[in-house]
Structure formats: C-alpha cells, structure tokens
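Section 3.1: Structural characterization of target chains.
Under the original work plan, the team committed to producing a structural model for every single-chain target entering the pipeline before any wet-lab resources were allocated. The record below documents one such target. The sequence was received from the expression subgroup and is listed exactly as submitted; it comprises 142 residues.
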Amino acid sequence: IVTQVKPVEEEQFIMQAILKYAKYAWCTWLTMKIFIKVSTYYMLKSRNMEGEAYSWITDWGPLVNPFINYIFSPISRLVIFIYHLTEPFRDIIYYEHILPIYLFHFQHLVEPLFSMAQHFSVRFLESLPGIDFEKLFPIIIF
C-alpha cells in the first residue's frame, strides 16, 4: 500500500485561504450589522419610537450580548473610572500648557484651513439635489 502525503506548503496555503475568507466574512457581517443597527435606530427615532429604538440598539443577539455584558461593559466602566480620576490632571496640562501655545502660535495657521474645508464641504452637499440633510447627517457621522 502506497500512501501519498500532501506537501505542507499546500496545506498551509489552504488554511491561509480559509482564514482570509473567514476574516473577510466576519468583518463584512459585523460592518453590515452595525450599519443596519444604526440606520434602523435613527429611523425609529425619527418616527418618535424611543422605546423601540433603545431596545433595538441595545440587543445585539445571543452571540454578541455576552461579550458586551461580561467583557466590554466592565472594561468600559474601568476606563471611565480612570478617565474621571485623571480629568483634573489633563485639564491642567491642556488649559495651562497646550491651549496657550495653540492660541498664540498656531491658531492663525490652522483656522483658515478648517474654514475652507467646511465651506467646500457645505457647498458640495448643497449642490447635491434631493438630499434630506436630517437623514444624511447620522449616516455621515457613523
């Protein structure tokens, strides 16, 4: 009996292809889920259905809810706690050291660029016909 063994390189290539496909599929699924969740949430809020909107955005399904409840929520609480502890220190650094440097040296350089970018983006959005800006704004943000 002759047994033929596959080369290791071929098996590694197949595994890499499967992993790339899985990564692509999961990223696509997650992106679509977030887009659908957020767009439906804003649609429900625009129809004054606050309760349904809140229950829709907070329920992510049986695969994601345990991750949110047991991993993400405690970590976010810890980060928020540390953030509030360090807030006075950051305020002192920002208001006494960084902000004066910006106001005296960089404001006259940066502000014209931001105002030009704002002007051109508003002009571009105004030139698009038939766009409802109240519904477009949340989509642009997220």
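The chain has a mean pLDDT of 81.
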